[in-house]
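Tokens for chain A. Residues wanted.
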């Protein structure tokens, strides 16, 4: 026997072993993908319900950001369904209702791939209508919907599956799309770690101390937790270690399913902890729901002892067309490049050539993961939105019309809802920002709709009381007058 056939067989065995290991690393059980589908649908419905409370304020021409004020956000903000349809509340409400139907179809698994695509279109349009409102959870939701177009989300526990004839496909499933969603989650944490390389607080152990003192987002629990200063460095380093190692455990070709299960449990706990400490709307629950969609098959096998309908299917494995696999592979490489290009402040040579990010913006797979990076903010503060009434009083619009005061609120984050804080933060405390006049006019209309006679507002001033966080505690700073405007007779 010659050496050449031996080397060929050895290479074949090596490649076969690599393929099996890769399959284990990126395999996702179809029952877990069903849970991911349900989680995405449920989170979309909850998100819509929360946004609907402020539909007129945030998504119509009667609110604080009419279509004419969208120029700072670029061309895509003026070219979406929610802007084209109408600035009237009824038209936007109709789009909300339509999106809710698509989300319900996704949750139930009815024409799943079409429902996923329609949800992705509606979500991206809604997010473009007022980009200043978007938080990290919103970005991840639209990314999961995009990658979900290439996943068999309706293969199990769906109306689609009930209509299908024949035995169900094998639950073990691996493809470039499963690799994409798992690596997408990993990129979230790894990119944040790389962005933090330009800072100092994470590596000195002080990051969590400063993060918990970021009062605009800190909850009552965070205010309580930050008194235990001696444990905060350990929690800071534990966060760094988990964000480094956790995604590796999720895609390890060895030690499965236990390492995947540990990764899921760890990240669900991390994001529920973030939700307890910071008012970031649905950021924590959305990430937790997505991670639950990666549970290992062994979890369902154990549960099937009590719920027989969840038992493992051992049918024919699902096959994905080669063209779809190739397309996802190219998109995944592109997303990695997009993420690397966001490190231009740390490594300028990584910046992509002009125009290369345009497809990412069009597909809404653009992303920048810099979770409290390079450092948590050292500067903080709170807003005072003062109105002068017809009888000469100064009232604080954020405190129910109480007399204006510069005193710090007990819980700063309770003054306004999370999306308003995010929206105002997008102005970066610039008093000359062109969006301020629209905001002031809306404040006048909103307040005077409930006021009359001597209680009517004649003028509104938006102030920001600055505060600097130090290791010795917060230090009060200057008061900035960000915007002012007279209230007209019609309230604006």
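Reply:
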């Amino acid at each position: 026997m010659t050496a050449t056939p031996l080397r060929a067989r050895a290479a074949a065995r090596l490649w076969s072993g690599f393929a099996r290991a890769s399959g284990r690393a990126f395999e996702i059980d179809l029952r877990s993908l069903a849970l991911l589908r349900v989680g995405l649908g449920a989170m979309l419905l909850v998100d819509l319900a929360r946004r609907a409370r402020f539909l007129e304020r945030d998504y119509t021409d009667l609110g604080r950001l009419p279509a004419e004020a969208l120029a700072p956000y670029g061309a895509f903000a003026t070219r979406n369904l929610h802007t084209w349809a109408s600035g009237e509340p009824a038209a936007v409400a109709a789009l909300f209702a339509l999106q809710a139907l698509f989300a319900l179809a996704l949750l139930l698994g009815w024409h799943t791939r079409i429902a996923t695509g329609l949800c992705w279109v509606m979500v991206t349009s809604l997010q473009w209508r007022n980009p200043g409102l978007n938080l990290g959870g919103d970005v991840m939701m639209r990314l999961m919907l995009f990658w979900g177009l290439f996943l068999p989300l309706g293969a199990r526990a769906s109306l689609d599956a009930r209509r299908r004839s024949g035995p169900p496909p094998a639950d073990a499933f691996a493809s470039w799309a499963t690799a994409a969603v798992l690596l997408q989650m990993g990129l979230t944490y790894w990119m944040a770690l790389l962005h933090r390389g330009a800072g100092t607080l994470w590596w000195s152990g002080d990051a969590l101390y400063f993060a918990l003192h970021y009062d605009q987002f800190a909850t009552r629990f965070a205010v309580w937790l930050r008194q235990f200063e001696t444990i905060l460095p350990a929690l800071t380093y534990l966060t760094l270690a988990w964000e480094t190692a956790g995604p590796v455990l999720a895609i390890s070709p060895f030690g499965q399913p236990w390492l995947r299960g540990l990764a899921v449990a760890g990240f669900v706990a991390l994001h529920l902890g973030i939700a307890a400490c910071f008012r970031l709307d649905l950021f924590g629950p959305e990430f937790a729901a997505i991670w639950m969609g990666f549970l290992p098959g062994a979890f369902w096998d154990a549960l099937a002892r009590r719920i027989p309908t969840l038992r493992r299917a051992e049918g024919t494995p699902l096959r994905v067309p080669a063209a779809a696999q190739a397309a996802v592979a190219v998109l995944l490489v592109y997303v990695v490049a997009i993420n690397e290009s966001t490190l231009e402040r740390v490594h300028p040579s990584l910046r992509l050539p002009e125009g290369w990010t345009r497809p990412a913006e069009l597909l809404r797979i653009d992303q920048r993961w810099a979770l409290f990076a390079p450092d948590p903010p050292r500067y903080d503060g709170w807003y005072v939105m003062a109105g002068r009434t017809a009888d000469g009083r100064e009232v604080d619009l954020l405190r129910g019309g109480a007399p204006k005061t510069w005193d710090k609120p007990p819980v700063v984050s309770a003054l306004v809802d999370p999306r308003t804080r995010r929206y105002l933060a997008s102005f970066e405390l610039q008093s000359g920002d062109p969006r301020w006049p629209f905001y002031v006019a809306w404040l006048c209309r909103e307040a005077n709709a409930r006021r009359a006679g001597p209680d009517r507002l004649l003028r509104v001033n938006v102030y920001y009381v600055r505060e600097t966080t130090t290791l010795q505690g917060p230090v009060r700073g200057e008061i900035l007058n960000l915007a002012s405007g007279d209230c007209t007779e019609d309230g604006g």
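The first strand starts at residue 28 and ends at 29. The chain has 20 helices and seven strands.
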